């Protein structure tokens, strides 16, 4: 028979799946909350290993964004690139994760971002923590990012 402590923990776990009105969040609502949280870091400077508003790296930005819906994801972009279902660029939608290599032609994952918006076949915006400009949103389909793009994943929400 569960004691009071177990009941409290179970209640908190169940409560985290619902919004303030007591309704379960849809996938769309979860994605909106993840993106909203990521965008709240816009302008935050890059800091290797950072996970706070005083400085954050690319994988830290994803960790904090998913934490807003009580989902824990791995710490590094390389580990994050193994979660969820693999998707092709043509299938990308908001909430998907995109992964990059630091140099053209290399396969090692060194950078990650979160798709925030898709406008047809010409604009796929994603947010990430840039080493030079901090947290920014840019078009994945630019020559630069397409040159270092390696893969995309759709995390299970």
Q: Span between N and C termini?
A: 31 Å
**Tally of alpha and pi helices:** 5
Helix content: 25-40%
Give the strand content.
Answer: 25-35%
Biggest sheet record: 6 strands, antiparallel
Following the backbone from N to C, one meets helices and strands in this order, namely HHEEHHEEEEEHE
- The secondary-structure class comes to alpha+beta
Please tell me the overall pLDDT.
89
Parts with pLDDT < 50 across at least 5 consecutive residues: 5-17
Count of individual beta strands: 8
Q: Write down the oligomeric state.
A: single chain
Q: Which value, in Å, is the CA radius of gyration?
A: 17 Å
Strand order of the largest sheet: 3-8-4-5-6-7
Structural shape: globular
List the helices and strands and how they pair.
Blueprint: H1 4-15, H2 27-39, E1 51-52, E2 55-56, H3 58-67, H4 77-80, E3 85-87, E4 97-100, E5 111-119, E6 123-130, E7 134-139, H5 143-148, E8 149-154
Antiparallel strand pairs: 1-2, 3-8, 4-5, 4-8, 5-6, 6-7
Helix pairs in contact: 2-3
How would you explain this protein's 3D organization?
The protein has 157 residues and is of the alpha+beta class. It is built from five helices and eight strands; from the N terminus they run H-H-E-E-H-H-E-E-E-E-E-H-E. The strands form two sheets. Strands 3-8-4-5-6-7 form a six-stranded antiparallel β-sheet. Strand 6 and strand 7 form a beta hairpin. Helix 2 crosses helix 3. It is globular and about 45 Å long. About 8% of the residues have low confidence.
List keywords for this structure.
single chain; 157 residues; alpha+beta; six-stranded antiparallel sheet; two-stranded antiparallel sheet; 5 helices
